[in-house]
Amino acid sequence: MLSSPRLAFRRFVPADLDLLHQSIYRHPKVAETLSPTGELTIRNTEYILYRRLKHWYEHGFGAWALLYRDNQALVGHCGLHYLDDYPEVELTYTIHPDYWGQGLATEAAQVVLHWGFETLQLSQIVAVSGPDNHASQRVLQKLGMQYEKQIRYNGTEVNYYALTRSQYRQMQATGTIDSIDRSNEK
Ligand SMILES: CC(C)(COP(=O)(O)OP(=O)(O)OC[C@H]1O[C@@H](n2cnc3c(N)ncnc32)[C@H](O)[C@@H]1OP(=O)(O)O)[C@@H](O)C(=O)NCCC(=O)NCCS
């Protein structure tokens, strides 16, 4: 089980469907970022949850539900999963808009990166973000992830970031992310 100062992490269960939809994906600000139609239906949320449960079952790791410790509210998810049609493992996160701008995505992702590199022993973790998703890109910058290129992913152009375990360990050892070259970042 993972934890951070403000967040408790737990595995998703099938019974989370309504809670997940009402708490996160029904929110217009979340849907407009994640869906080309600007809307996520309960069936979309069901598919998202199904894929999360299946990933844990097949690979032994995946995305965690995030509970805000102060009130036990479900405030989002953060975790690791294989990118569709790619061999890489992706860092993924979403936070409820009421909790944006408090550093929660960064806090959760730092724990997940440590889990990925030091417990799961992954050699590299990647991330993709829509070119207009500046909040997500900022989170990736704060984590020390390095912009590498644009790729076409699920029908859209996205920014692709990566961090290797050795880069991660170097950052941990020096307490800095300044060793990451950002000169080619879009
Ligand atoms: C992306 C997301 C997870 C960020 O969550 P969060 O908890 O607010 O993130 P943090 O507070 O850790 O960091 C956000 C950073 O982005 C910055 N930011 C927010 N909006 C921004 C914008 N429009 N342009 C530039 N920076 C922005 C914040 O100021 C903050 O940086 P700072 O700490 O240097 O001030 C959240 O906005 C979200 O869930 N969005 C919808 C789903 C999504 O986009 N998921 C990721 C898919 S790739």
Structural notes for this entry:
- The N and C termini lie far apart (36 Å).
- The protein contains six helices and seven strands.
- Helices cover 38% and strands 27% of the residues.
- The protein has helices spanning 17-25, 28-34, 42-59, 104-119, 134-143, 165-174; strands spanning 7-11, 63-68, 74-82, 89-95, 124-129, 146-153, 156-164.
- Strand 3 and strand 4 (89-95) form a beta hairpin.
- The longest helix is centred in the N-terminal third of the chain and has 18 residues, at 42-59.
- By secondary structure, it is of the alpha+beta class.
- The chain has a single domain (7-174), classed as Aminopeptidase.
- It has a four-stranded antiparallel beta sheet with strand order 1-2-3-4, with helices on both faces.
- 30% of the residues are buried.
- The protein binds coenzyme A (COA).
- Coenzyme A binds next to helix 2, strand 4, helix 4 and helix 5.
- Coenzyme A (COA) binds next to helix 2, strand 4, helix 4 and helix 5.
